[in-house]
Amino acid sequence: EKMGLNEIREKYLRFFESKEHLILPSFSLIPKNDKSLLLISAGMAPLKPYFTGQEVPPKERITTCQKCIRTGDIERVGKTARHATFFEMLGNFSFGDYFKEGAISWAWEFVTEVLKLPQDRLWVTIYLDDDEAFEIWNKKVGVPAEKIVRMGKEDNFWEIGVGPCGPCSEIYFDRGEDKGCGKPDCAIGCDCDRFVEFWNLVFTQFDKDEEGNYSLLEKPNIDTGMGLERIATIMQGVDTIFDVDTMKNIRDQVCKVAKVQYGKDASTDSSVRLITDHIRSVTFMVSDGILPSNEGRGYVLRRLLRRAARHGKLLGVDNTFLWDLCDVVIDNSKHAYIELGEKKDYIKKVIKLEEERFDQTIDQGMIILNDYIQELKKNSKAVMTGDKAFKLYDTYGFPIELTLEILEEQGISIDIDGFNSEMTVQKERARAAREETNYMGADMDIFTTLPAEMVTTFNGYHDTVSKGRI
Ligand code: ATP
Ligand code: MG
Ligand code: MG
Ligand code: MG
């Protein structure tokens, strides 16, 4: 009998509870008092004040399963076996209590004794000159030296926005040659899906400030993060995160609604995976109080939702369907995240409204966009002007990234500077109009009642996509 995703989560939290950790529920996806992050993208992010000593944690040892969004990975979703925009991160944290030795030996104990993963398939990486970590893995835990790989800053130094950071050590699982790219130099660190990184142990020793300076923290901490969907993929011996029990429930429902079969056609499958992923992000974001808008988090939500809606069209779905998919997402996760069950009707209503709104213009917008594409091709041009992209955005509700993506399939790019300047002009016009009418910034948008902390400024396409490394 395979261990289900929900069961793995429970096992992890109970294991660290038995090591005297306090279990805390997941924090909201909306960061509190952290301007360096748009959305929570790691288990440690909401705990930053405890790491820096700004606040006193309820206990020196904490364990959580944190909801995470990483829009930076959006292009990889459905293409790799292991990336999602929404995922759950299991973590155990030490605030000045245990350090490298505790973190490493408990991680190993959990992986080999609780999950019972075969040791000969496991690999670890350490930061370049971290001999201390090497000694612990090699001497204390008994991992052979040839399976401890030293990697550089890109992979084994962890930081997110400002705040606590440090060198890290990661645990990988070798899924076997048949899951890999087959290239002769394929080895740990290869970007294919053979060696899958599933757990990152961060030795938080530094604090990074706004200017990028690192200072030593008074007491070193531990921050670990293990992707729940990833470890479930490994435990269940399936191909991708989309084959994990709970994910498959959603995937099956997508196929049912779209009347397609999974595993028959590559481009169909890729749309199915994309929708399966995005509907999770959307459901969890709405449950945490994010509403579709043209700025900040609301824009991320809108973009994900509209991208999923467009892929629904590609599959031949001709009515709104995303709001209905929420049921299976909620059923999968409502025991771990009670807010999902409690807000079910609200979540569905918000998604339905946004879906209907996009549905009214998407067909028309696609016709216009196809005209633009034909015209460009006729004139052998490969760059679409900013004003055209802006029109699709402004009149037909196409997030710029969506237009970019559709054009990319045709080998066409967009004059982004041109788009951004149209955007600035529009903002300016809207501001002037507001001043004139003293209209308090309200338009006919039903979604304008955003809490002040959720409103961020649109600084052009690049800034809204992702912040920092992730
Ligand atoms: P990768 O190199 O595979 O992109 P990462 O190094 O960016 O992962 P970390 O920041 O170390 O990931 O996050 C800790 C863990 O969270 C990872 O080891 C992985 O198990 C999980 N994880 C990270 N990104 C994703 C994602 N997009 N989808 C699902 N799980 C993820
Ligand atoms: Mg990595
Ligand atoms: Mg990592
Ligand atoms: Mg990554």
From TrEMBL:
Cofactors required: Zn(2+)
GO biological process, any: alanyl-tRNA aminoacylation
Domain of life: Bacteria
Cofactor binding note: Binds 1 zinc ion per subunit.
Catalyzed reaction equations: tRNA(Ala) + L-alanine + ATP = L-alanyl-tRNA(Ala) + AMP + diphosphate
GO CC, any one term: cytosol
Compartment annotation: Cytoplasm
Enzyme class: ligase
Keywords tagged on the record: Aminoacyl-tRNA synthetase, ATP-binding, Cytoplasm, Ligase, Metal-binding, Nucleotide-binding, Protein biosynthesis, RNA-binding, tRNA-binding, Zinc
Its EC number(s): 6.1.1.7
Segments forming domain Alanyl-transfer RNA synthetases family profile: 3-470
One Gene Ontology molecular-function label: zinc ion binding
Domain text: Consists of three domains; the N-terminal catalytic domain, the editing domain and the C-terminal C-Ala domain. The editing domain removes incorrectly charged amino acids, while the C-Ala domain, along with tRNA(Ala), serves as a bridge to cooperatively bring together the editing and aminoacylation centers thus stimulating deacylation of misacylated tRNAs.
Entry similarity comment: Belongs to the class-II aminoacyl-tRNA synthetase family.
Reported function: Catalyzes the attachment of alanine to tRNA(Ala) in a two-step reaction: alanine is first activated by ATP to form Ala-AMP and then transferred to the acceptor end of tRNA(Ala). Also edits incorrectly charged Ser-tRNA(Ala) and Gly-tRNA(Ala) via its editing domain.
Protein name (Swiss-Prot/TrEMBL): Alanine--tRNA ligase
Lineage: Bacteria, Bacillati, Bacillota, Clostridia, Eubacteriales
Gene this chain is encoded by: alaS_2
Part of the intact protein present: 2 to 471 of 878
